[in-house]
Amino acid sequence: MENIIIMPKNKNHIRFKGTNYEVIGKLKLDGHVYIIIEDFSNGNNSDHGVYKAIEPKMDRMTVIRWKKGSNYEERRLLHRAAENNPNLPTVLYHKKKAGKSYIVLPWIHGRSLRWYIDKAKQGKDQYRFHPEDAFHMTRKLTHGLLNLHRNRIIHGDLKPENLIVQKPFRMIPIDFGISWTGEKANKRDYKSKTRRYCAPEQFKGGLVDSRADQFSISVVLYEMITLKLPYDDYGSEAARYSSPKLKSSKKTNKASWSKLDTVLKRSLNLDPNKRYQTTQDFLNALISASPKSKKYTFSPLDKFIIKILKNLKLLN
Description:
Elements: E1 5-6, E2 12-16, E3 19-23, E4 25-29, E5 32-39, E6 48-55, E7 60-68, H1 72-82, E8 93-97, E9 100-106, E10 111-112, H2 113-121, H3 131-150, E11 153-154, E12 163-166, E13 170-173, E14 180-181, H4 210-226, H5 230-233, H6 249-252, H7 258-267, H8 279-288, H9 300-311
Antiparallel strand pairs: 1-4, 2-3, 4-5, 5-6, 6-7, 7-9, 8-9, 10-12, 11-14, 12-13
Helix pairs in contact: 1-3, 3-4, 3-8, 7-8
């Protein structure tokens, strides 16, 4: 049976975990039935779409992304990359049918990083992340990206709007709508994206690889620490000007540290050939730049693992 959206003639509602939602449609994928309660694409794009939906059979809230064309391989690789990785969203289901590729992800609860940054810029310091917390969140995210890149997937649109903050201090990337495999990264359409977070090479055509994601996540980290974009708030658009200067994060936020600025100076280079050449190299540099203070607090899981290791005498 062809996958179709059935729009009800009369508005009806569904109750899910104590809350009533208006039903705007239904989506059938093989034996899976999804009750659509929100259309983020607003029906204005015939090439791709994003739905918030309830899957009654499994009693869960989901996000369904679909795209025309044969990007099934990317969806399959994303599924594999996300397996057993807490730093990436779990892929619940993926299917190619009727000329469309579908991917179903769990609805990730939490607020976007943009929400926190905007609150901090309004002077509400309780929403501002300490540089060490920002650092550890970025390190965890980079670990997730490493798994993504090893499976030849480039996210391509990492920015505060596409990062959901979860406790204990973890950022989960969302919106893989324009992600692609490295071999196909020749020329992309970036009109819909926030340009200043994207690596300069993403607008030039030609090969784009994991170093683009490295640049973007470094822009995000820099903004979390300073509340400004690098290169005097121009971000990647600084590449259009001659001799742009990168101010150290420590000059803006005294709680930052020199080793981290050394890493950022390289990962934020406007020339991809002068950045870390692999995500593993970037992750290693971040680990080497870890702060030595006691400010960072381990999560309950971290503490549990440390306790086990100590009991086994594998950790001093």
